Amino acid sequence: MGHTLFGALGLFSLNILLYCGHAQDVPQPVLTVSPSWTSPGDSVTLTCSVEPPSAGWRFFWYKAVPDMSSTYNYYTFKLLAGGTTGTEQDSYILHGQTHTAGYKCRAGRGDPVSYTQYSGVKFVWSGGVNPAASLTVSPHRLQHFSTESLSLICEGNSTEWRVMKVDEDGYVSSCSYWGEMTGSTCNTTRASSGVYWCESETQFSNAANITIHNPEEAASSSVFLVPLVVGLVSGVLLIILLLLFLRRYRKSEASSLSRSQRANQSAATDHMINQDESSLTYSVVQFKHLKKKEKHDEPDESPVYSDVRIPSAADDVTYVQVHPPTGKKSNEGKSRCVVEEETVYSEVKPRTSDE
């Protein structure tokens, strides 16, 4: 009996080893979707890559169908229309994508066909509202703190719902792991950043990309942002002050230039006036003690001396001063006419070369 039990255990272990070795030899393709977020009516391209690349593969495409009865395997997979024989191309185009959906792929070759493993599930997200299935987030925003309570509400044409999430590492989980599902509402205080949506056996809702912040991280970010904002504001104010100073300097420079021009014009005008004045020649004649006789207007017999001063080279004005004789004769019995001293200026034009 003991030998029989020992033999059975050995055979079971051998089968496990053989299965594990065979699984390691079977490649697992990688599925990518583009774009991952769509608007209603967009086309989506699925690409299935097998490593290492080799010829002869045919590719099979599957759509995820929610399995509400399973706790761990959330989906079964159904071949897409026309995919029973597979495609030679490693890509598949979905036309008119209207809502959130999940997809898988695998490849096969040979006769009989030898298949690869299934790829991981990839989702195409749609933010558009689907009347048959919709998700509402409360509080109604996409930014939340980890200390807040979050409610995810499912509505649509179904009596059984579950809320699903794909986190930043690509791990798929349901509300039962990080919250509590009550009817069609998931309540949680342990939400993490990721994409959330509702699903029933036949429907996927719109998706919401929710970001959860840690209060301590938010505080440290604020501490970093405060000096950054202060530095930016200070830089802007400095630039404004420099611009104002430059503008004031230019105005001052323009004013100084204007004053200098006016001063030069004034100096030029004065110079012209001085030149006009310096070109005049004056003759100063001074008569003293001129007398009249009763019968004859004859000058005194004494000679008249004229004092003529020749101007210097620096002075263009010529002065002529004439002094009458100072000697006096008494004429008794005659009336005396005395002419008061008076200085007479006469403008004398200098002789030109034409005269």
UniProtKB/TrEMBL annotation:
- One Gene Ontology term of the molecular function aspect: transmembrane signaling receptor activity
Coiled-coil blocks: none
Which residue intervals define the domain Ig-like in the entry?
A: 27-116
Its source organism is Gasterosteus aculeatus aculeatus
**By what name is this protein known?**
Ig-like domain-containing protein
GO cellular component terms, A-Z: external side of plasma membrane
Task: Set out the biological process GO terms recorded for this chain's protein.
Answer: cell surface receptor signaling pathway; immune response
| Disordered: annotated segments | 291-310, 316-355
Q: Does the keyword Ribonucleoprotein apply?
A: no
- Name the UniProt key words of this record, in alphabetical order: Disulfide bond, Membrane, Signal, Transmembrane, Transmembrane helix
